[in-house]
Amino acid sequence: MTNVLVYAETRGGQPRKVTFEAITAARQLADQLGGAVHVVVAGPAGVEALAASFGEHGADVVVACGHESLVHYQPDVATALVASRARSATYRAIVFSASAQGKDLAPRVAARLRTTLASDVTSFSLRGDAMVVTHPGYTGKVIQTLKLVASPALLAVRPGAVAAAKQPKAGTVEAVALPELPSARVTTTETVLGDTKKLDLGEAPVIVSGGRGLKAAEHFALVEELAAAFGNAAVGATRAVTDEGWRPHADQIGQTGRLVSPDLYVAVGISGAIQHLAGMRTSRCIVAINKDKEAPIFKVADYGIVGDVFEVVPALTAAIKSAKQGA
What we know:
Number of strands: 17
Number of helices: 9
Strand content: 25-35%
Order of helices and strands: EEEHEHEHEHEEEEEEEHEHEHEHEH
Radius of gyration: 21 Å
Distance between the termini: 50 Å
Helix content: 25-40%
């Protein structure tokens, strides 16, 4: 059992960034095992054309199911495809993204295969015959280490925890037919996308997030201007802010919102409630701006600025713009 299977997510017929992260994670495992990476992808007719991009990131084989009924994510079909492929070969692990779609699909596949699943994984390695992974536990208060001995072991990797990397492989296509299901219990008839002009929180390398320290919805303009200065940043918020209606709930980061691990996370006026830390503490670099030097956010921050956000943020925005103009 040396091969690793991956489920590839698509949106609008195109692969999502989290898919390349999952393939990269699978490639790392397969290289340790001396095996190959197989990718399962489902979508409308022509989905097999995505195999080239999967191959660039380390996929040896792409199992493609193209059908007009798969324009939207269909959980029953995806479960049947992944479980069937897993049973047809010996896989040591199956990798998903811990995205909304991955968190829906991975437990279904685990139940179908009667095997173990580790969710929201932030690191992984092989130690002997066991798969050892880490993930935040107890609302992010601790980082737990789990040892998975069952095979295949299912991993749902937190978006951003693994940086997508190119490692060209064959990406050979194997076309498979739509599985015959007696009756679908769930059918997705429509997918409503949010503002597609905005960078998705799960795919942004930089996130600027605001909390109640901004005092009013209109002051979020400071956060948006700072994000715009970076040029590759998304805007997030705490639950308190979304509950107040200052930002849409889609922007919420935390235990009951989005789980993110960007390269840089800038927390503006955020005290650092444990529920918020659960969603962002695995970011690679955290910068906190808060006038309260005792705020819990400083315990997880790599860099802290104690000061008034209404003075610090405009100065930081101006400094970033100046630095980029001089670059």
